[in-house]
Amino acid sequence: MDADSVAKYDLPGHLRSVPDEIEVTGLPVTGALPPELTGRYVRNGPNALPGQTTAQPLAGPGMLHGVRLRAGRAEWYRNRWVRTGAFQGRSFVTADGRLDLTATSANTHVMRHADRILALVEVGLPHEVTPTLDTVGPCDFGGRLTTAMTAHPKLDPVTGELHFFGYGMRPPYLTYHRLDAAGALVHSQEIEVPTGTMMHDFAITEHYVVWLDLPVTFQWGLAGGPVPYQWDDAYGARLGIMRHDEPGARVRWFGIDPCYVFHVGNAYEDAEGRIVLDAVRYAPADFAAMWRVARAMDMTLAAGRSVLHRWILDPAGTGVTAREEQLDDRSVEMPTMNDTRVGRPARYLYTIIGGAPNSQDDCAIVKYDIESGKSTSYDLAPEVAIGEAVFVPSSGGPGAPEGPRGEDDGWLISIATLRDGSASQLLVLDATDLPAGPVASVELPRGVPTGFHGSWLPDEV
Ligand SMILES: [Fe+2]
């Protein structure tokens, strides 16, 4: 990032872009890496090009940071920009007014489905990358995907299907899609909504898709900006449930108190057949505060708070509103879970405290026991910023604990970066015992900017 943009935004060091792509082998490890962790941890995030003054740092080109672990060793660190159309200088809006879904940043998430590793951003097509993070190119699933693809698809752990959606500023405003377990796009269905809203995430259960139709709408007056969405008091707020096993099923909507949600923790059907949705909720004033920071990157502004919240929707009842309940009063974000329980009842959610750019909270990784309401945490030193903690189930491979596997039997992987940006570590924690701290810390060869989302990609066995 050039000096002008640093001065303009005055970003803390742990958010500043790195200037180049490197590869370093043989990384120092403190503690003992579980040998069963054999694969790659890959994380995405915005990273301006050298000399580039992005209009908005969080919309910058995606950069993947990867760490290769094998048999107790940290073999390499490597970082690569995702070569999208935007990276090559093309505009998202073409000269004749069309949207170029390949000219986006691909900067939000990275995941693997059916042997494709995809870098994702919610306003464009996914971009396929190789296991060594080189870009293959945009992926439209054989020409079948004609909308953007959310950065938060949901993998059904039983069927292997990948549920996702695309939203846009022009009709169709919202489209539901599903890949089969082999990665073929087998279903696309337009969902009727009044206008384009910023829909960052959604949820699935065994039988339903859960839509979050919330009052942050596309506004033409902001169209020149990189994130042309704004809170809209007139829109209202609602959650929708739709059977995903009935082609063409209609959505049933439930009103909720106005709020915004970036991230879903989990949803499931309870014993009475009700849909329970746990997610991280911003009250209107907190969204306003967070959105000012996200758009302006002004670190002098107050941080918006976001708390774990529950909504209960009853498909069998006659109600038109959802029951709501706040689950905790701490400000958390980036919820993760054991992905083998997605859409099913799950006991544990993992979140981070202090991840927002201007948060005044010291960072921590928090493990919620949803059943008991209790939580445990790993608290970091004040000079450290933490990113999303990805849960990796214990595989039962070499070095894995013996005995039956509990839901939390596994590891949490996250990148911690000094707030001055000078150094980073990959932390591995035992998810059954967060307060014990990392079982292993991998010294990364550079300060890795705190980014968005990532995945553990185990070697195929
Ligand atoms: Fe996200």
Automatic annotation (TrEMBL):
It comes from Nonomuraea zeae. The keyword rRNA processing does not apply. Belongs to the carotenoid oxygenase family. It holds the Pfam family RPE65. Binds 1 Fe(2+) ion per subunit. One of its GO terms (molecular function) is carotenoid dioxygenase activity. Its EC number is 1.13.11.-. Fe cation binds at H152, H200, H263, H453. One of its GO terms (biological process) is carotene catabolic process. Its cofactor is Fe(2+). Keywords: Dioxygenase, Iron, Metal-binding, Oxidoreductase. This is Dioxygenase. The keyword Iron-sulfur does not apply.
